Amino acid sequence: MSTPPTFRRAPRPEQGAAPASSAATDAVRLNKRLADMGLCSRREADEWIERGWVRVNGAPAVMGVKVGPQDKVTVERQAEAAQAQRVTILLNKPMGYVSGQAEDGHQPAVVLINAQSHWREDRSRTRFAPHQLRGLAPAGRLDIDSVGLLVLTQDGRIARHLIGQDSEIEKEYLVRVALDGAEAKNTQAQFPPEKLALLRHGLHLDGQPLKPAKVSWQNEEQLRIVLREGKKRQIRRMCEQVGLKVVGLKRIRIGSVVLGQLPVGQWRYLGEHERF
């Protein structure tokens, strides 16, 4: 992930400081401006504004204000200190847990984040504390019947980097498949090459064309699929369209961060020098 812009100590308020130019046609809400600068998420920006850590043209910002390109936006260093305390966690999600809020009687994956399930071989110097669970949310889905790498973070910058509308981060999966309605053991040998090409590019979901994907056989029953998007149950729905049934799905990489040897049901912190 690219290094965010440097925080600057906000100047003292000046008499007659110019207000934000909300009338400008190219003005945007302040929380969007801060997010576009790469400093934080919009939700975090609202928190900073409420705490008085953001100034516009030297004056304390107010919630909902709009700013234009000519307006000077500065952030107090307290915001940087608060953000440094936010954690990002990598979990090897087992089957049977949902990524987000509890649903249909199934527990959310965040219940697995505790001191007992912290991987012993985690090299991070960060120590678990209950406050790290506040605002901890998944940055991307992993279906209830899928396993593998799930990112949970308190840092809105990382969430936006991974699942923002313009995100191009790769997600890599190992997918066990079978021919739909068949008992053949060597799926690879019987699967038409033209359908494999369709998996790579040419399918549509929800009326929209999918981005090109990297798809290759790892063995007779397993595909390696790399996506740069994350529609709901995307891989399963892609496979259905070409006559394949998914019988197992495991995410092993997001960007440059890999699942590695992290045991099922355990978690570790994103390393200080790791970047997606």
From TrEMBL:
GO biological process: enzyme-directed rRNA pseudouridine synthesis
Domain of life: Bacteria
Keyword RNA-binding (UniProt): yes
Keywords: Isomerase, RNA-binding
GO MF: 23S rRNA pseudouridine(2604) synthase activity; RNA binding
Record field: catalytic activity: uridine(35) in tRNA(Tyr) = pseudouridine(35) in tRNA(Tyr); uridine(2604) in 23S rRNA = pseudouridine(2604) in 23S rRNA
Domain RNA-binding S4, first and last residues per copy: 28-86
Region (Disordered): 1-24
UniProt-listed InterPro entries: PsdUridine_synth_cat_dom_sf, PsdUridine_synth_RsuA/RluA, PsdUridine_synth_RsuA/RluB/E/F, RsuA_PseudoU_synthase, S4_RNA-bd, S4_RNA-bd_sf
Pfam families reported for this sequence: PseudoU_synth_2 (PF00849), S4 (PF01479)
EC annotation from Swiss-Prot or TrEMBL: 5.4.99.21
Protein name: Dual-specificity RNA pseudouridine synthase RluF
